[in-house]
Amino acid sequence: MTAYKLLSLLLCYPDAELYALRSEIRAELLRLPAGVPAAEIHAFLDATAGDGLEDAQEAYVGTFDFKRRASLHLTYPYQGDRRQRGVALLKLRRLYERLGLELAGDELPDHLPLMLELADMLEPAQACELLGDFRGAIELIAAALDQQGSPYRHLLAALTALLGPASEAELDELARLAAQGPPREQVGLEPFGPPELMPGLAGAAA
User: Fold this and answer.
1) How far is Cα 141 from Cα 115, in angstroms, rounded to an integer?
2) DSSP string for 120-187
3) Inter-residue contact 118 to 130 (CB < 8 Å)
4) Residue 14's closest CA among 4, 22, 23, 26?
5) Residues 112, 12: contact at Cβ < 8 Å?
6) pLDDT tens for the chain, residues 1 to 206
7) What is the C-alpha separation between 126 and 132, in angstroms, rounded?
8) Which CATH number characterizes residue 35's domain?
9) SS3 for 111?
10) Pairwise CA distance, residues 137 & 70, whole Å
11) Half-sphere exposure of 16 (CA within 13 A, CB side)
12) What's the pLDDT at 50?
């Protein structure tokens, strides 16, 4: 398994079948080159080693399903629920189809675990290009998980290490997404990102 595949598995909802694979995932992890991605995945597995299945499921839901800042759907920070998001999702779905990856169930094609599975099928440069188009959203999730102190922050750290340092343009995009939030929700709601990602806003709120 590549690092993308391991991250895809570990970022899925931990059902009984997936949880039974943790020892196999540890074994596959030993095959990865030494470096930040492997170390961060190790850190996640170590931090959650004592969790039972029910605790793991509760932690997953609490981390991703009820905190929109940590949503694993990568088009949402850019488009919200506008019609344009449907176009972006359709393009992704067609890309999956061209590569022979069939989507099961009702999961949207921008769900990060699915995107990582898609990246696993590509050449490294192509995978970075695919995920790089959503770098702002990925960095936003990483920042939210850091703020929570969630063990899942290690998996996002592994992913950002695989993608390489964020460019100045990508960091500007992160600040914009954090400050503005999804287009449908710009007015009257709390900022989408944590205060430290929004220069000027923290001081204004003080």
Assistant:
1) 14
2) HTS-HHHHHHHHHTTHHHHHHHHHHHHHHT-TTHHHHHHHHHHH-SPPHHHHHHHHHHHHH-SGGG-S
3) yes
4) 22
5) no
6) 899 999 999 999 999 998 889 889 999 999 999 999 999 999 999 999 989 999 999 999 999 987 777 889 998 877 666 566 778 888 888 888 888 777 776 778 899 999 999 899 889 899 998 898 899 889 989 999 999 999 999 999 999 999 988 777 777 777 777 776 665 544 333 444 444 443 333 333 33
7) 9
8) 1.10.3480
9) strand
10) 9
11) 0
12) 87
Q: Which residues contact 96 (CB under 8 A, 6 or more apart)?
A: 102, 103, 109, 114, 118
Cα–Cα nearest to 180, from 160, 197, 168: 197
> Has this prediction a pTM greater than 0.85?
no
Could you give the angle at the alpha carbon of 17 between the alpha carbons of 13 and 18, nearest 5°? 45
Specify the pLDDT at position 41: 97
What CA–CA distances, in Å, run from 159 to 41, 88, 135, 180, 203?
9, 22, 10, 24, 31
Three-state SS string over 34-75 comes to CCHHHHHHHHHHHHCCCCCHHHHHHHHHHHHHCCHHHCCECC
What are φ and ψ of residue 11, in 5° steps?
Answer: -95, 0
Per-residue confidence (pLDDT) for residue 72, from 0 to 100: 94
- Could you list the residue range(s) of the whole structural domain that residue 122 is in? 3-205
- Count of domains for the chain: 1
